[in-house]
TrEMBL record, chain A:
A molecular-function term among this protein's GO annotations: GTP binding
Domain spans labelled Ferrous iron transport protein B C-terminal: 402-453
Keyword terms of this UniProt record: Membrane, Transmembrane, Transmembrane helix
Organism in which the protein naturally occurs: Gluconobacter aidae
InterPro entries: Fe2_transport_prot_B_C, FeoB_GTPase, G_FEOB_dom, Gate_dom, GTP-bd, P-loop_NTPase
Transmembrane segments: 226-247, 277-304, 360-386, 392-417, 454-475, 550-572, 593-614
Domain Nucleoside transporter/FeoB GTPase Gate: 289-385, 459-589
Name of the molecule in the record: Ferrous iron transport protein B
GO cellular component: a single term: plasma membrane
Domain FeoB-type G residues, every copy: 15-174
Length: 622, 102
């Protein structure tokens, strides 16, 4: 390889795609190749949409690379495998056919991965085989005759270790070489399974039969009929406790930083429209949302780490029976867990579900899984109305309430799914899920995932959230009240009037007009509801000091019943517009979307109504 | 086969009679026991689940072992197949016919 690496003129740019089975380490190879130079079409979690990235080889060849969803076969059984098949065959509507495939196979699972590789030979595309996880295979005592296998397969094989930069160098060097000839397809009449058996017998020495002792030991614990579910429950519980507890110091720091920043920026400005726009519209709005960045990142850290470690499919195994009660299978668990980060990737991840009905029901209940955009609302209200106390010595009461809100949402999801699948003649809900070996999560991959999420969140704050807040500020400030009018200026504004009108609908569930106003921009992005409240209260405030602290303000102005009613509302609240749009795209049916919005609105209203009146009765307010 | 090492409890469903021959199926294989796949049965013409099982490597001649069963009852089961592990529901596993004789 190094003989041609000395040529100095870079070869023309190249468009390649990474293909492979799920769990072959494809995504970590992609991250290693492209670093931060990637455009992510999906969010955290499983690759369900293609991901695009760019990198340059040592010789300066510019490469565009696609990371395709993992597939077991080109004969696809689920919508995510369709993407892989269509791109490989050049049939995808918006993606040109790649010039070359990099087939990623794991040395630790050759029997499964070689079969798919043989299938790729039929495509007539040049293929380089990236033989991943060679380090792990060697540790298990596996020896592979790479040269022999390469000659037999008719495709160049480069051993890679996708965990570090040096480990992917062989692949980078191979990409500098001229494209290999497309491999000859497997002759008709040869059973690919027999062919795999022959290849393994001829080129692989495997004294320990490739079993991963650590995974066996961990599975005995994690899949144990009693300890398995207990551990799962503890993991989920600790996850939500840390989201609250670990984030707090960081959030306090950000909060005071934003206040200081606001004071510095606003100091030289004279009183007037500009100052009001900056203080009440931009800083009060964006600032209240940015504070939640640590919480959202911690939640994502958990989801990414659980995903990378290989624990998620075990959780799906443990919860399969529970999901069966809801008329679904364990397969629905992974999309639903992603929905705790955001319903959008969750709905897209539902593509991995083969049964169309299971997929539809999963999409419909995904919005019930508490997405991270709801965290700001929960945090604000819990912070204002739930005392900061320790229960049973170790649990924070606030964390417990948060856990309870999540639990209520999950139970509602199960019931909703049960109702939706009721009366359907029982058909098969396939599980058929691979349980990959456990792996230590790669720090670089985690960091990259978190960084992408942070960028996405901050750009959301910078674009949608700030513009919505500015719009809301304008609506709340104009028209100006007539000179000498009594009361707060906001009562005369457009937003004030809309809020008062909406109160006809929302007064029975205890919402005041300020909440009503904040519900509207909350449709575009849920976390905006918090900043909208900040803006509305900032403009509505008669004295100047009220701009900075929403939390103490709420705890004095709202009754506990109103706060809990709003919490209940947000457990079910109609989804944000982007969720509805993704639902429309994934189901292709506007009727489904309308039905979803209607049932969630109904549930939200009912839950808020009950919560409001029960809390009022309990707190002794007439 | 190492079946002798495994205590088969009375509660475990016994291998039962399907079609014309006595055959053990993967859904009734006791936890811990090893067996070799004899055939994959199609439930319908072009049964997609049978096809997927074959693509995942459930083909005649491969060794399987039941690693774990679900927390409630015997559904789902975790199965080792060569170097891979899979979670299957009972209905899926019932398509996998086994031979236990060594």
């Amino acid at each position: 390889m190094s003989s041609t690496a000395s040529t100095q003129t870079p070869a023309p740019s190249l468009h390649i795609a990474l293909v492979g089975n799920p769990n072959c380490g494809k995504t970590s190879l992609f991250n290693q190749l492209t670093g931060s130079r990637q455009k992510v079409a999906n969010y955290a979690g499983v690759t369900v949409e293609r991901k695009e990235g760019f990198f340059t080889t040592p010789n300066g060849r510019a490469i565009r690379v696609l990371d395709l969803p993992g597939a077991y076969s080109l004969d696809s059984t689920s919508p995510d495998e369709d993407v892989t098949r269509d791109v490989c065959l050049g049939r995808h509507r918006s993606e040109p056919r790649p010039e070359m495939l990099v087939a990623v196979i794991s040395a630790t699972n050759l029997r499964l991965h070689l079969r798919f590789l043989l299938e790729l030979k039929q495509l007539g595309l040049p293929v380089i085989v990236a033989l991943n996880m060679m380090d792990e295979a060697r540790r298990h005592g596996l020896q592979i005759d790479v040269a022999g296998l390469q000659a037999d397969l008719g495709m160049p094989i480069v051993p890679v270790v996708s965990l570090n930069r040096a480990g992917v160098m062989p692949l980078l060097q191979a990409l500098d070489l001229p494209l290999p000839a497309p491999p000859a397809p497997l002759p008709a009449g040869i059973d690919p399974h027999m062919e795999v058996r022959r290849l393994l017998a001829a080129y692989v020495i495997d004294p320990s039969a490739g079993t991963d002792r650590l995974t066996d030991r961990l599975d005995r614990l994690f899949l144990h009929p009693v300890w398995g579910p207990v551990i799962l429950l503890v993991v989920l519980f600790v996850m939500f406790q840390t989201v609250f507890a670990w984030a707090q110091p960081l959030m306090d720091g950000l909060d005071s930083g934003i206040s200081t920043f606001g004071q510095i920026v606003l100091k030289p400005l004279p009183d007037g429209i500009l100052r009001s726009l900056l203080a009440d519209g931009v800083i009060a709005g964006a600032g209240t949302v940015i504070v939640f960045l640590p919480q959202i990142l911690i939640l994502f850290l958990w989801i990414l780490a659980l995903e990378e470690s290989g624990y998620l499919p075990r959780a799906a195994f443990l919860l399969d029976r529970l999901m069966a009660l809801a008329g679904l299978s364990g397969r629905s668990f992974i999309p639903l867990l992603s929905s705790f980060a955001c319903a959008i990737p969750g709905i897209m991840a539902a593509r991995t579900i083969q049964n169309p009905r299971d997929r539809l029901v999963t999409i419909l209940i995904a919005p019930l899984m508490t997405c991270s955009a709801r965290l700001p609302v929960y945090t604000l209200l819990i912070g204002a109305f739930v005392p900061h106390r320790t229960v049973l010595g170790i649990f924070g009461l606030q964390g417990l309430v948060l856990f309870g809100l999540y639990a209520v949402a999950i139970v509602s999801g199960v019931i909703a799914a049960r109702v939706m699948t009721r009366g359907v003649k029982s058909e098969e809900h396939p599980l058929l899920l691979e349980l990959p070996p456990y792996r230590r999560p790669n720090l670089r991959s985690l960091a990259l995932g978190l960084w992408q999420r942070a960028v996405m969140f901050l750009s959301r704050v910078g674009t949608i959230i700030v513009s919505l807040n500015v719009l809301l500020w304008a609506l709340s400030s104009f028209p100006l009240p007539p000179a000498g009018a009594p009361g707060a200026a906001i009562d005369y504004s457009l937003a004030g009037r809309i809020g008062h009108l909406m109160q006809w609908v929302f007064a029975p569930i205890g919402f005041n007009w300020q909440i009503c106003v904040s519900l509207i921009p909350g449709l575009a992005a849920r976390e905006v509801a918090v900043s909208a409240l900040a803006t509305v209260y900032a403009i509505g405030a008669t004295d100047d000091g009220a701009t900075d602290k929403l939390l103490p303000l709420l705890s004095t102005q709202w009754s506990m019943a109103t706060a809990f009613s709003l919490l209940a509302w947000y457990v079910y609240a109609p989804q944000c517009i982007s969720t509805l749009a993704v639902m429309r795209r994934e189901t292709g049916s506007i009727k489904t979307v309308l039905w979803a919005a209607a049932y969630l609105f109904g549930l939200a209203y009912l839950a808020a109504f009950l919560t409001y009146h029960i809390t009022r009765a309990l707190t002794g307010v007439p | 086969m190492r079946l002798s090492r495994v205590k088969v409890r009375a509660a475990e469903p016994a291998p039962y009679y399907r079609g014309t021959e006595l055959m053990l199926y993967l859904d009734t294989l006791p936890k811990g026991a090893h067996a070799v796949i004899e055939k994959i049965e199609q439930r319908a013409p072009l049964d997609p689940i049978a096809t997927r099982l074959e693509e995942l490597g459930f083909v005649p001649g491969e060794a399987v072992q039941v690693l774990a069963t679900g927390p409630m009852g015997r559904d789902p089961i975790a199965v080792r197949l060569g170097t891979s592990r899979f979670a299957l529901r009972r209905g899926e596993a019932a398509r996998v016919g086994l031979r236990t004789a060594a």
